[in-house]
């Protein structure tokens, strides 16, 4: 476990009390992000790591492509006249936000940040935000496997070691329970729509329909079916070498609900329930999250 802690401290830095991986983020970029000017027609997906952000990114980029009458699946072809930026807002170099000024609308971005760490222009300009949340136990399970699969994140010898870090605010992007209770303060705003990983697993067609309606994107039945088909776990996994290169297998692991039952001890289960109660009992997001 000692080697594992060293590994963690070398790979992360802290900004405003929250740990982030040095390979993806920097204090300089965070500083530059503060003055980022959001546009009212930006499309933002907010979700903590491992909540299914790649899944919803695919759905949203398909919906945007449909709204622009483009052919689905061709938007990543690297058209030189339409420069692209890595959609994860806080990931990249500090000059990224200057370059983003030149991107055509609608710009699509994803963020793992809490609302208080996002640029204030997002809320001032009432940018529409899709907030994605996932059962914390499944999210922790997913994060554990991901952390061990990606060199940029600490590796853990045992699940117990990871669990300890997860509940003591030591993993990348900080404590998920705090993340949820911060976002809970925003869920009533008209520009925010919340979806759960679990409801999307249950009925993808309904989820996609509601998301399209929220962003004001009309869909024919055929277009809806196409987006639904393209966003199945099997189809995204099959396509993952093309979309995610060598990381395909790490991002599309199992795609299931309740996988936490394979890892959690009874004690860990109780501890997580207690933390959930303390942070989220009776809140809107708390009620939406299924266990
Ligand atoms: P698991 O590790 O539980 O399989 P993120 O994209 O935020 O990193 O989240 C990754 C999680 O979303 C992984 O969870 C991954 O398998 C799951 N996921 C990705 N695409 C999915 C899809 N089309 N349907 C269901 N789950 C998906």
UniProtKB/TrEMBL annotation:
Question: Which SUPFAM superfamilies does this UniProt record tie to the protein?
Answer: P-loop containing nucleoside triphosphate hydrolases
Q: Where is the Sulfotransferase domain?
A: 41-283
Q: Which GO MF terms does the UniProt record name?
A: sulfotransferase activity
- The reply on keyword Cell wall biogenesis/degradation is no
Give the EC number(s) listed in the UniProt record. 2.8.2.-
Q: Which UniProt keywords apply?
A: Transferase
> Into which family does the record put it?
Belongs to the sulfotransferase 1 family.
Which named protein is this?
Answer: Sulfotransferase
| Species name | Catharus ustulatus
> Gene encoding it?
LOC116994466
């Amino acid at each position: 476990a000692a080697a594992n802690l060293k590994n963690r401290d070398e790979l992360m830095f802290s900004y405003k009390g929250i740990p982030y991986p040095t390979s993806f983020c920097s204090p300089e970029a965070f500083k530059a992000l503060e003055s980022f000017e959001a546009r009212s027609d930006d499309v933002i997906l907010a979700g903590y790591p491992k909540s299914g952000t790649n899944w919803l990114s695919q759905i949203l980029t398909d919906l945007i492509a449909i709204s622009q009458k483009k052919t689905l699946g061709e938007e990543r072809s690297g058209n030189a006249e339409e420069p692209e930026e890595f959609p994860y807002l806080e990931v990249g170099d500090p000059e990224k936000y200057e370059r983003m000024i030149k991107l055509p609308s609608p710009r699509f971005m994803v963020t793992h940040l809490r609302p208080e760490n996002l640029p204030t222009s997002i809320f001032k300009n009432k940018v529409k935000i899709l907030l994605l949340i996932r059962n914390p136990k499944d999210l922790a399970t997913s994060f554990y496997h991901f952390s061990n699969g990606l060199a940029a994140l600490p590796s853990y010898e045992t699940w117990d070691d990871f669990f300890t870090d997860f509940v003591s605010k030591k993993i990348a992007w900080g404590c998920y329970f705090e993340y949820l209770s911060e976002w809970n303060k925003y869920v009533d705003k008209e520009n925010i729509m919340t979806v759960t990983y679990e409801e999307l697993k249950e009925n993808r067609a309904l989820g996609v329909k509601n998301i399209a309606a929220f962003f004001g994107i009309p869909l024919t039945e055929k277009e809806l079916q196409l987006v639904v088909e393209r966003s199945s776990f099997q189809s995204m996994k099959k396509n993952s070498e093309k979309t995610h290169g060598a990381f395909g297998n790490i991002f599309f692991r199992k795609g299931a609900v309740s996988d936490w039952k394979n890892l959690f001890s009874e004690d860990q289960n109780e501890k997580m329930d207690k933390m959930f109660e303390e942070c989220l009992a009776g809140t809107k997001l708390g009620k939406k999250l299924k266990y």
